[in-house]
Amino acid sequence: MELLQIILEDELLDVENQVADPIKDEQDAFSVINMVPSYVAAGIRAIPDELFDLSIEDIEKKGEVDSSIKKLRIAFWIEYERAARTQTQIQMNNVTSGIVHNKFFAKKVATNSYKLAFILTPPENYKITMEEMLHMALSEERKILLTPLEIKIVKFDNEGSPTSEMTMIDSKLAAVKHKIRESLQNRLHGMPLHRSIQVTENTNRNVGENAPSIRGALSPTDMNKLSNNELRNYRDQMRTQDSPMLLDVSGDKADE
Questions:
Q1: Could you say which DSSP state residue 245 is in?
Q2: Of 114, 213, 247, 248, which residue has the fewest beta carbons closer than 10 angstroms?
């Protein structure tokens, strides 16, 4: 058993030696250490290799990483992509601009192995992060769905002996489960289509902009009461408007 463990450790070491280090490999022209200014390179050399074996969460906690360092991390890798694409050096001004002063980076960040290691760890893809959070949320929702709705309530007498037992439904939990079901159904099949009577934008604009000249739509009943001259004037007025004529299709008076 011990021999097998030694063999596996040797093979793992061989694999690690074959994998190029994108941060500290000084033989690779596009390794970070060869693309940064000398004071940043010196800070990279000082980082213990074991530090990169830690999770990003551990590095963040031990390095007391604040929001400025998190912004620097994103800015650094944006600048790295630009430098690698154009085959130029990383310009630290592009990294620190609007976040911290260059002197602060040189004195407080480049000399702090935890903060520098945090920055040198590429940020996770936003979409991947959101998908991971979604799967975690779905796992938690599954726990809620598996929780029984029925609640047993037992009444006891003064001596502590059970006298009666009844089962009730947890309405709050039922409402949460209903919301989860709706959310999952909408995610799988899309939101349900609600059909309703639609008012066109032109009609809304007509009412808003020309309200002084149009006192309201006339119902068929009102139009029958108009004289020929009044009806002709009403139609002429409607023709001068940019938007379609408003009609009251309810059969009732517009002002009722």
A1: P
A2: 213
